[in-house]
Amino acid sequence: MKTNEVLDCIKRRRSIRTYTNRQISEEDLGLILEAATYAPNGMHLETWHFTAIQNTKKLRQLNSLIKKAFSKSDDPHLQERSKNEAYCCYYHASTLIIVSNEPLNWWASMDCACAIENMFLAANSLGIGSCWINQLGTTCDDSEVRSFITSLGVPKNHKVYGCVALGYADSTLIPKKKNVKTTTITIIK
Protein backbone atom coordinates (compact mmCIF):
# COMPACT_ATOMS: atom_id res chain seq x y z
CA MET A 1 0.00 0.00 0.00
CA LYS A 2 1.24 3.48 -0.88
CA THR A 3 2.29 5.65 2.08
CA ASN A 4 4.41 8.66 3.03
CA GLU A 5 5.58 10.56 6.11
CA VAL A 6 2.33 12.53 6.51
CA LEU A 7 0.08 9.49 6.13
CA ASP A 8 2.25 7.54 8.59
CA CYS A 9 2.04 10.41 11.11
CA ILE A 10 -1.76 10.47 10.81
CA LYS A 11 -1.99 6.71 11.34
CA ARG A 12 0.37 6.77 14.38
CA ARG A 13 -1.39 9.57 16.28
CA ARG A 14 -3.44 8.53 19.33
CA SER A 15 -5.00 10.46 22.21
CA ILE A 16 -2.69 10.40 25.23
CA ARG A 17 -4.17 10.62 28.71
CA THR A 18 -1.14 9.77 30.86
CA TYR A 19 1.83 12.15 30.77
CA THR A 20 5.23 12.52 32.38
CA ASN A 21 6.15 15.77 34.17
CA ARG A 22 8.61 16.73 31.42
CA GLN A 23 7.74 20.08 29.83
CA ILE A 24 7.83 20.50 26.07
CA SER A 25 10.44 22.93 24.78
CA GLU A 26 9.70 26.49 23.74
CA GLU A 27 10.86 25.63 20.22
CA ASP A 28 8.48 22.65 19.94
CA LEU A 29 5.60 24.68 21.37
CA GLY A 30 6.32 27.35 18.77
CA LEU A 31 6.26 24.80 15.95
CA ILE A 32 2.97 23.33 17.18
CA LEU A 33 1.36 26.77 17.45
CA GLU A 34 2.69 27.71 14.01
CA ALA A 35 1.08 24.54 12.59
CA ALA A 36 -2.24 25.73 14.06
CA THR A 37 -1.99 29.02 12.18
CA TYR A 38 -1.59 27.17 8.88
CA ALA A 39 -4.93 25.37 9.25
CA PRO A 40 -7.71 26.14 6.79
CA ASN A 41 -10.13 28.78 8.03
CA GLY A 42 -13.26 30.47 6.76
CA MET A 43 -12.57 33.30 4.30
CA HIS A 44 -9.00 33.34 5.66
CA LEU A 45 -10.15 35.70 8.42
CA GLU A 46 -8.06 33.96 11.12
CA THR A 47 -10.35 35.12 13.92
CA TRP A 48 -9.11 32.32 16.19
CA HIS A 49 -6.79 32.70 19.18
CA PHE A 50 -4.43 30.22 20.82
CA THR A 51 -3.57 30.62 24.50
CA ALA A 52 -0.78 28.28 25.65
CA ILE A 53 -0.42 27.59 29.37
CA GLN A 54 2.70 25.92 30.75
CA ASN A 55 2.37 27.20 34.31
CA THR A 56 1.41 24.29 36.61
CA LYS A 57 -0.21 26.57 39.19
CA LYS A 58 -2.40 28.25 36.55
CA LEU A 59 -3.38 24.85 35.11
CA ARG A 60 -4.43 23.64 38.57
CA GLN A 61 -6.45 26.84 39.13
CA LEU A 62 -8.20 26.36 35.80
CA ASN A 63 -9.05 22.75 36.65
CA SER A 64 -10.48 23.84 40.03
CA LEU A 65 -12.64 26.50 38.39
CA ILE A 66 -13.92 24.03 35.80
CA LYS A 67 -14.82 21.59 38.59
CA LYS A 68 -16.58 24.39 40.45
CA ALA A 69 -18.57 25.20 37.29
CA PHE A 70 -19.43 21.49 36.98
CA SER A 71 -20.87 21.58 40.51
CA LYS A 72 -23.47 24.13 39.30
CA SER A 73 -24.63 21.86 36.48
CA ASP A 74 -27.82 19.79 36.44
CA ASP A 75 -25.91 16.97 34.72
CA PRO A 76 -25.23 14.17 37.27
CA HIS A 77 -22.08 13.13 35.40
CA LEU A 78 -20.60 16.63 35.74
CA GLN A 79 -21.76 16.83 39.37
CA GLU A 80 -19.83 13.61 40.03
CA ARG A 81 -16.68 14.98 38.38
CA SER A 82 -16.89 18.15 40.46
CA LYS A 83 -16.64 16.09 43.66
CA ASN A 84 -13.80 13.84 42.49
CA GLU A 85 -10.54 15.07 44.08
CA ALA A 86 -8.43 13.19 41.53
CA TYR A 87 -10.26 14.55 38.48
CA CYS A 88 -8.04 16.56 36.13
CA CYS A 89 -9.65 17.63 32.88
CA TYR A 90 -6.28 18.04 31.12
CA TYR A 91 -4.82 14.73 32.43
CA HIS A 92 -1.92 16.55 34.12
CA ALA A 93 -0.32 17.39 30.77
CA SER A 94 2.54 19.88 31.04
CA THR A 95 1.00 22.22 28.44
CA LEU A 96 -2.57 23.16 27.59
CA ILE A 97 -3.53 25.24 24.57
CA ILE A 98 -6.92 26.94 24.71
CA VAL A 99 -8.40 27.34 21.22
CA SER A 100 -10.99 30.09 20.97
CA ASN A 101 -12.77 32.05 18.28
CA GLU A 102 -15.39 34.71 17.66
CA PRO A 103 -18.73 32.88 17.96
CA LEU A 104 -20.44 35.23 15.49
CA ASN A 105 -18.78 33.41 12.58
CA TRP A 106 -20.79 30.25 11.90
CA TRP A 107 -17.58 28.48 10.84
CA ALA A 108 -15.69 29.34 14.05
CA SER A 109 -15.92 25.82 15.47
CA MET A 110 -14.77 24.27 12.20
CA ASP A 111 -11.77 26.61 11.97
CA CYS A 112 -10.78 25.65 15.50
CA ALA A 113 -11.20 21.93 14.77
CA CYS A 114 -8.86 22.23 11.78
CA ALA A 115 -6.29 24.10 13.90
CA ILE A 116 -6.52 21.50 16.67
CA GLU A 117 -5.93 18.65 14.22
CA ASN A 118 -2.88 20.47 12.82
CA MET A 119 -1.53 20.77 16.38
CA PHE A 120 -2.14 17.07 17.02
CA LEU A 121 -0.25 16.06 13.90
CA ALA A 122 2.61 18.51 14.50
CA ALA A 123 2.95 17.29 18.09
CA ASN A 124 2.95 13.66 16.98
CA SER A 125 5.64 14.37 14.40
CA LEU A 126 7.79 15.81 17.23
CA GLY A 127 7.26 12.83 19.54
CA ILE A 128 4.83 14.76 21.76
CA GLY A 129 1.52 13.30 22.91
CA SER A 130 -1.78 15.15 22.69
CA CYS A 131 -5.46 14.92 23.58
CA TRP A 132 -8.55 16.97 22.74
CA ILE A 133 -9.99 18.55 25.90
CA ASN A 134 -13.67 19.65 25.80
CA GLN A 135 -14.45 20.70 29.37
CA LEU A 136 -13.50 24.36 29.00
CA GLY A 137 -15.77 24.68 25.98
CA THR A 138 -18.78 23.80 28.13
CA THR A 139 -17.74 26.00 31.08
CA CYS A 140 -16.16 29.07 29.46
CA ASP A 141 -19.29 31.17 30.07
CA ASP A 142 -19.29 30.52 33.81
CA SER A 143 -18.42 33.94 35.32
CA GLU A 144 -15.43 32.73 37.36
CA VAL A 145 -14.04 30.62 34.53
CA ARG A 146 -14.52 33.49 32.06
CA SER A 147 -12.75 35.95 34.33
CA PHE A 148 -9.81 33.57 34.77
CA ILE A 149 -9.35 32.69 31.10
CA THR A 150 -9.63 36.36 30.15
CA SER A 151 -6.81 37.09 32.61
CA LEU A 152 -4.76 34.43 30.77
CA GLY A 153 -5.26 36.17 27.42
CA VAL A 154 -8.35 34.55 25.91
CA PRO A 155 -10.19 37.44 24.20
CA LYS A 156 -13.39 38.49 26.02
CA ASN A 157 -15.52 38.11 22.89
CA HIS A 158 -14.32 34.55 22.22
CA LYS A 159 -15.90 31.19 22.92
CA VAL A 160 -13.63 28.25 23.68
CA TYR A 161 -14.09 25.51 21.08
CA GLY A 162 -11.57 23.06 22.47
CA CYS A 163 -8.22 22.68 24.15
CA VAL A 164 -5.11 20.68 23.32
CA ALA A 165 -3.30 18.85 26.10
CA LEU A 166 0.37 18.38 25.19
CA GLY A 167 3.16 16.45 26.85
CA TYR A 168 5.31 13.36 26.76
CA ALA A 169 3.45 10.08 27.06
CA ASP A 170 4.16 7.82 29.99
CA SER A 171 6.57 5.21 28.58
CA THR A 172 4.56 2.36 30.14
CA LEU A 173 1.55 3.37 28.05
CA ILE A 174 0.64 0.94 25.27
CA PRO A 175 -1.11 2.79 22.42
CA LYS A 176 -4.52 1.41 21.49
CA LYS A 177 -4.82 -0.21 18.11
CA LYS A 178 -7.01 1.77 15.73
CA ASN A 179 -9.93 -0.23 14.38
CA VAL A 180 -11.32 1.39 11.26
CA LYS A 181 -14.90 0.40 10.55
CA THR A 182 -15.38 -1.00 7.08
CA THR A 183 -18.71 0.81 6.76
CA THR A 184 -17.18 4.27 7.22
CA ILE A 185 -16.39 5.05 3.60
CA THR A 186 -18.65 5.11 0.55
CA ILE A 187 -17.26 5.86 -2.92
CA ILE A 188 -19.60 6.74 -5.77
CA LYS A 189 -18.12 6.63 -9.30
Characteristics of this structure?
globular; 189 residues; four-stranded antiparallel sheet; NADH Oxidase; alpha+beta
Q: What top-tier CATH class fits best? A: Alpha Beta
Number of domains: 1
CATH fold-level name:
NADH Oxidase
Content-based structural category? alpha+beta
Summed up, the helix count is 7
How does the SSE layout of this entry go?
Blueprint: H1 5-12, H2 26-37, E1 49-53, H3 56-71, H4 76-83, E2 95-101, H5 108-125, E3 129-133, H6 135-139, H7 143-152, E4 159-167
Antiparallel strand pairs: 1-2, 2-4, 3-4
Helix pairs in contact: 2-5, 3-4, 3-7
Task: Give a short summary of the structure.
The chain is of the alpha+beta class.
Overview of this structure, please?
The protein is of the alpha+beta class. The protein has one domain (5-167): NADH Oxidase. Helix content is 41%, strand content 14%. The chain contains seven helices and four strands, in the order ααβααβαβααβ. The protein has a four-stranded antiparallel sheet. Helix 2 (26-37) packs antiparallel against helix 5 (108-125), helix 3 packs across helix 4 and helix 3 packs antiparallel against helix 7 (143-152). The chain is globular. The mean pLDDT is 96.
